[in-house]
Specification:
Blueprint: H1 2-14, H2 18-33, H3 36-40, E1 43-45, H4 57-65, E2 69-76, E3 81-87, E4 94-95, E5 103-104, E6 110-111, E7 118-121, E8 125-127, E9 132-133, H5 139-143, E10 152-156, E11 162-163, E12 177-180, E13 183-187, E14 197-200
Parallel strand pairs: 1-2, 1-7, 7-10, 8-11, 10-12
Antiparallel strand pairs: 2-3, 3-6, 4-5, 8-9, 12-13, 13-14
Helix pairs in contact: 2-4
């Protein structure tokens, strides 16, 4: 089920024309930049978008100009994990990395998980409870639990990437917000007596 869902969503995402990727991504980045948690964050983690993921370059550069520390993932394929390095210039501080994904050069300083205030999380799909379908390698599944309890995790996705379920497993941890071009989704907490999500619409 997960494999079929991943294939279907990735095929649709890869079929997006460049102009549509740019337009949708611009709206998403505007929404993220307006988040009070983002404005108050001192250390954020972003990602270098590839294969028609939601673009992040404008958001990264705005954060750097605002004096925030911005880190991006580096993949350690031997240990099967990601760790974060801070960039001072984007994209100049990036080099080709594992799986063809640009990542910070070795000279960039490492950022410990407990230093991070907010993480922008890429994904193939998200469900209405905030659970994420990744690319099947589990790197973010192993990294996110290492964050301090107060860190905010924000999934970035196009509206069509939001599905009823991604078939989460016991070890999966939901993100606390999802931002799409159509609005901000706040999954309801377990134990609240409700299920599903709260959606802040296009004018929020």
């Amino acid at each position: 089920m997960k494999k079929d869902l991943r294939t279907a969503i990735l095929s649709r995402r890869l079929a997006l024309p460049p102009a549509e990727v740019a337009a949708r991504s611009a709206r998403i980045q505007e929404r993220v930049w307006a988040l009070p948690a983002l404005q108050g964050a001192r250390v954020i983690v972003a990602y270098a978008a590839c294969r028609n993921e939601v673009q992040t370059e404008k958001l990264i550069n705005e954060a750097l100009l605002a004096g925030k520390r911005v880190a991006l993932p580096v993949t350690d394929i031997n240990r099967q994990e990601i760790f974060m390095r801070a960039v001072g210039r984007y994209p100049e501080d990036l080099v080709p990395g594992v799986f063809g994904i640009p990542e910070p050069r070795e000279a960039c300083p490492a950022i410990a998980p407990e230093e991070i205030d907010l993480v922008l999380v890429p994904g193939v799909a998200y469900d209405i409870n905030g659970y994420r379908l990744g690319y099947g390698r589990g790197y973010y599944d192993r990294f996110l639990p290492r964050l301090r309890p107060g860190a905010l995790t924000v999934g970035l996705a196009y509206a069509f990437q939001i599905v009823p379920t991604v078939y989460p497993e016991a070890h999966d941890r939901p993100v606390r917000l999802i931002v799409t071009e159509e609005g901000i989704i706040q999954p309801l907490k377990k134990g609240s007596g409700a299920h599903g999500l709260q959606m802040h619409g296009a004018d929020s």
